[in-house]
Design a protein that fits this description.
Radius of gyration: 26 Å
Number of helices: 1
Number of domains: 2
CATH class of the largest domain: Mainly Beta
Structural class: mainly beta
Distance between the termini: 26 Å
CATH topology of the largest domain: Methylamine Dehydrogenase, Chain H
Largest sheet: 8 strands, antiparallel
Shape: elongated
CATH superfamily of the largest domain: YVTN repeat-like/Quinoprotein amine dehydrogenase
Length: 504
């Protein structure tokens, strides 16, 4: 048995998220060099993500080919809406069939929508970049907006009881708005109007008391209480938004994808005090690899997790290889992780009766899925991967003889994962001890309880696995991998116990 009298311990929490822009020597112990299908948890640690499952058991009907994307998914009232090919359909959540509610659309690029209520009646308006905007009432009766100037709009948003349309291919710099309280009335004498900006519009978003107009290289905002005092001002002429489907209200701010990564608009009550900042520098290499090659982008927000997800969809990339980024506001900082295995063509998130509903329409197989549901991706296993920095314990010149690793984690059901200890930057010549099972069926002790040798699932108790380990090196790293056949679990922290050896 090793002499533990000279053992030194390094404890650390799992915090800081995925960091790819630092030397491993400069990383904090709790940060991660690899964090795939884990999410930084606002309750602490890194949690293996949930899966997704079919929200409607039937495929959305195709109109031309089975490869048609689900170009829109939206919750509306008690129904879910989906667009595929030339038609829009409705279904009951958990239902087994779709009903056509609008058809004969041609040339649709991507459907976008706005839920609104001008007169006490819930409605949703849908635009697709090619056809007239279509308004559905609560009974899903469809009415096309008759104004020809807004036909072919790509973007739509309600603001100050007006409906705003933008993104026509023939008028890429123009925003047209309706009369107040009427999405299909455009008399200038009754409060309708339009304005132009000097750049191609890529998205519209209401934030606080302003309407932000995102363009390719610039950002503007519309302020005012009505058409009589609407005014357009510059936010910035130095940066724009490359895709409007990435714009979300998140963590008390607006987040969007710029040419250099994720950015926020931080507004205050002071007029004109708008600060722009890049927040994704820790994972900028992933954005660099995907911004130019992705065929489209989608995003969602999970408010109860203070989480933003952005998806990079590539036409010829298999679903299992499709990547995305998780961004979490934890404390006062943004933390990141990588997703693999979700390939949406459309998304929606909505809070209904206190429940967060997160949906995506599949890129290729025609199904609508609910995220944050189940332990797999509709039958495909979720592979979770974590890797710590290469830890030198503040002295890369002294060999460390590892004695024990204590893993603090929280299982939500029985799990089956492996702990790996790796040395000297995983060089081919370095020691590679076999995997140590991180199996909740064999939990040694439960922190904070008097029960010994009994795992606890689903509660607040956090098991401590005390694992004797082998090997030595000048730098030490930890890996945790699971094969996917497991429920979510959270890695809370580690303690590495070691003895100092000779200096090289």
């Amino acid at each position: 048995m090793a002499d533990l009298s000279q053992v030194t311990a390094l404890p650390f929490n799992c915090e800081g998220g995925l960091v790819l822009n630092k030397s491993t020597f400069m990383m904090l112990p709790g940060e991660a060099l690899e964090l795939e299908n884990f999410e930084p948890d606002i309750e602490g640690g890194y949690r293996r993500i949930n899966g997704f499952s079919k929200y409607v058991t039937a495929v959305v009907p195709q109109t031309a080919s089975a490869s048609e994307k689900v170009l829109m998914v939206a919750t509306f009232g008690s129904k879910v809406l989906a667009a595929r090919g030339t038609s829009i359909y409705s279904a009951d959540p958990g239902g087994s069939s779709w009903t056509s509610i609008d058809s004969g659309r041609t040339g649709a690029l991507k459907y976008r929508f706005e839920r609104f209520n001008f007169d006490g009646t819930d409605k949703i308006v849908v635009v697709d970049g090619a056809n007239a905007p279509t308004v559905f009432n609560s009974s899903l009766s469809a009415t096309d907006v008759s104004e020809s100037s807004v036909a072919g709009s790509k973007f739509v948003v309600s603001f100050k009881n007006h409906m705003f349309y933008a993104g026509k291919s023939t008028t890429k710099q123009e925003v047209i708005f309706s009369q107040p309280f009427d999405e299909d009335a455009f008399s200038s004498g009754s409060g309708a109007g339009s304005f132009k900006v000097d750049d191609e519009i890529t998205g519209l978003k209401v934030f606080r008391d302003d309407l932000f107009v995102f363009c390719e290289t610039r950002i503007f905002k519309l302020s005012g209480s009505s058409s009589s005092n609407f005014a357009v001002t510059d936010v910035t002429r130095d940066i724009g938004c490359i895709n409007g489907d990435t714009i979300q209200e998140f963590a008390g701010d607006l987040i969007f994808l710029g040419p250099d990564g994720l950015r926020t608009i931080a507004g205050t009550a002071r007029i004109g005090d708008v600060e722009l900042g890049t927040i994704s520098s820790n994972v900028q290499s992933i954005f660099n690899d995907n911004i130019s090659s992705a065929s489209e982008f989608d995003s969602i927000v999970i408010p109860d997790k203070t989480q933003y997800r952005i998806f990079f969809t590539k036409t010829n990339t298999d679903e299992t290889l499709t990547k995305g980024i998780i961004c979490v506001m934890r404390g006062q900082r943004f933390e990141f992780a990588e997703m693999r295995g979700i390939k949406p063509a459309s998304t929606d998130h909505f809070v209904s009766e206190g429940n967060v509903i997160v949906l995506h329409g599949a890129y290729g197989n025609g199904f609508v899925y609910r995220q944050e549901s189940g332990n797999d991706f509709d039958g495909t296993l979720i592979s979770g991967k974590y890797r710590s920095p290469d830890l030198t314990f503040n002295d890369p010149g002294i060999r460390k003889h590892m004695q024990r690793v204590i893993v603090n984690y929280k299982p939500e059901a029985a799990i089956d994962a492996d702990l790996f200890v790796r040395y000297d930057y995983e060089a081919a010549s370095s020691a590679r001890p076999a995997a140590y099972p991180l199996d909740s069926e064999d939990v040694v002790a439960i922190y904070g309880t008097s029960v010994y040798g009994t795992p606890t699932y689903g509660g607040a108790s956090q098991p401590l696995v005390r694992q004797a380990v082998e090997g030595s090196g000048f730098a030490v790293a930890l890996r945790v991998n699971d094969g996917g056949s497991t429920a979510p679990y959270s890695l809370k922290g580690f303690q590495l116990e070691y003895q100092l050896g000779a200096r090289r």
